[in-house]
Every structure is written in C-alpha cells, then in structure tokens.
Here is the input.
Amino acid sequence: MSAVGTLGVALIGTGFMGKCHANAWRAVAATFGGAPLRLELLCDTPAEKAAAMAAQFGFTRATGDWRAVVADPAVDVISVTTPNGLHRPIAEAALANGKHVWLEKPMAPALADAEAMAAAVRPGLVTMLGYNYTRNPAFRHAVKLIAEGAIGRPLHFRGVFDEDYMSDPAQPWTWRCLKTDGGLGALGDLGCHLVAAMLPLMGPVESLTAELQTVVPARPFEGGMRSVENDDSAFAHLRFRSGATGSFFCSRVVRGRKNKLAWEVQGSEGTISFDQERMNELWLYRAGGGAATEGFTRILSGPAHPPFGAFSPAAGHNLGFNELKVVEAQELLAGIREGAPVWPDFAAGLGIERIIHAMARASETGSRQQLD
Ligand SMILES: NC(=O)c1ccc[n+]([C@@H]2O[C@H](COP(=O)([O-])OP(=O)(O)OC[C@H]3O[C@@H](n4cnc5c(N)ncnc54)[C@H](O)[C@@H]3O)[C@@H](O)[C@H]2O)c1
Here is the structure.
C-alpha cells in the first residue's frame, strides 16, 4: 500500500462496465464506511479518451497504456473492464506486479487462459470476478432460505438469462462475436452469470448435456459483413451432485427481454422464484398453507436482507443494478483489508468457466460431460 491507510485504485476500460466500476469506487466508502480510496489512475485508448474519462470519473491521472497501470507504484488494486481478450494479459501482469485484481466476467475467452490466470494468483493477492447479480440482497436471502430448508429438498433448477441486445440481425458486429476477443458468445456473456447464480442455490454440477446455436451467422461491419464465430444461444440439461436436475438456457437474441436473469428452485416442500427485471422481489411458496389461502408470497427487499440497510433504512425503496457493484467493491475491500473470504475469486471463477466450456464441448461432441 503506497500511502498509509489508503488504497490506490486504477481502472482499465471506461465503457458500460468501466462506468459501473467507477461509480462503485466512488460510492463504496460513503455507503459502507471505511477509509477513503485514492482514485489514482485511469486507462483507456486512445490516451485523449482516457484523459477525458479520468476528469469525468474523478481519477487523478490518465494513460493510454495498460502496461503503465500494472507497473505503477501508487496503484494497489486494478479494475479490469476491457473486452475479454485483454483479461488474461492484464490480470497476469497485474498479479506479477503485486496488485489486487477486480476483473469483469468471463475470466477470458478460452478455458486454458482461465486456468493460467487462476494459477498466477500468489498468496496475499485478492482477486474478484464481476458476478454482480450474486450480490443482490434478494438473491442472498434466497440462498439462505434454501440452506435453512424453507423449500425442503431442492429437486429442480430452471434458469434462463435472456437479452435482446443482438436480436436485430442489423445490429453491427462487435468484439463480442469473435472467439479471440469474446470467447464464448451468449454463454460467455450471459450464461456465466446464470451459472454463478445457480451454484450457491444448487451446489456443484455433476454432469451436463448442451446444445449451442448461432442464429445470426454474419453481421454488418465496416461497410460489409463479418462472421459471428460464437453462440447466440445455449440450452443445457444438468444433473447436480445432490441428485437434483436442472434446465438452463441463455440467449442474446430473445426479442423483448432486456435483462431476464430468471430462475426458479423447486423443492420437496416449496418453490422460490426470482427475475432480475424485478430484482427487489423474491417469490416464495411453502406447501401446507391450506387450499383456500395458499399461494406465492412476494418478499420485497429491505434492511432485513443484508446489505440492503447500508443503502437505505426503508424496505421497498428499491436497489438498482449499479448498487450491486458497490456491494461487490465492498466485498473486495473486505478481502484486501481484513482477509475476508471473496467469492468468486479466480479459483472459484475457474469453476464457473469449466461449466460453460463443458456446455460448449457437450454441444460440439454431442456427448454428456462430467464435471469434477
Ligand atoms: N458484470 C456485468 O454485468 C457485465 C455487463 C456488461 C459487460 N461485462 C463485462 O465487462 C467487460 C467490458 O464490457 P463492456 O460492455 O463494458 O464493453 P465496452 O465495449 O462498453 O467497454 C470496453 C472498454 O475497454 C476499452 N478498451 C479496449 N481496448 C483497450 C485497451 N487496449 N486499453 C485500455 N482500454 C481498452 C474500450 O475503449 C472501452 O472503453 C467484458 O468483459 C464484459 O463481459 C460485465
């Protein structure tokens, strides 16, 4: 740590997620307390863009070269919010220079990259992956209810993550369509989030089958058309180590769905249901209520569901997407400052990557894949 009591923060990438990380770094001390942070160094390309975004986000310095960031002595922790193809080189260089890393998901385009990144973590360095949906107080409450037996023995998981951001075939080609830059398509962008939610709810996956599909094979790019190299959608059937079964679907081409990360856990004594498009609500059904009055109960997030109370003392005064990132920043800081457990770190994140890549392999080979 370069200045007593304060951590120096750097941010690489200032797009959708870069702004989200910047907001989280700015809000975390005001929300949760703790020592203020130094927003030290911001990076994007070209350097002029970095300078403009540093001024907007409140960072002291700017650079167009991420290698200068990982080597900077005033930087202790680095947010990496670049396209996926840069995750491995940046994360490995940051770890080699003794920096803590907050990395956006997925870890990297290929499974071998993720394995190398997990192996690069040294003792004393904290890593965190950007699985923000698992920070939701409503989600945490669902995990707790299942662990307490509120729905009996979980029998089935049914999960989808549908968005429409590429449903229009006229939507231009982006780095997300390329194997080297994006990696897996819908699975790498959306499916990994659904896996991250599924694991705390259901426990480890034992085996799976899957089918991937590319619906739009080429998209407009620089006056012509360019091939889409990865999946627009993916189905999977899962068997969990507990004996429960699951169905899984993710797609980036579902008309009308904006952020439908929705799942249901069906148990021997009840059912819990959630939809990210209504992220402050959890629906719980418990058997035995009597035929005339039984039904799903809507549980609205509030201070009874930590860490909601850090944001507001009043239930029903809803949280939003960006606040999930503030929780994530707080959990990363607790890991750095107090040694608190961080989930998912690179080791746990590798487990998520293994599942999405097993889905891709199952589709390619037409065979059931066993997970360790
Ligand atoms: N956690 C979530 O909910 C969530 C949501 C969206 C995206 N993501 C992830 O966040 C990452 C970024 O996605 P995005 O939607 O913000 O993308 P984006 O295209 O909006 O932003 C990427 C940023 O990286 C910058 N960049 C590109 N090359 C660079 C380089 N060499 N040096 C420095 N900066 C460079 C770009 O200029 C841009 O500012 C991806 O890994 C994506 O999967 C996560």
Notes: The first strand starts at residue 8 and ends at 12. The chain has nine helices and 17 strands.
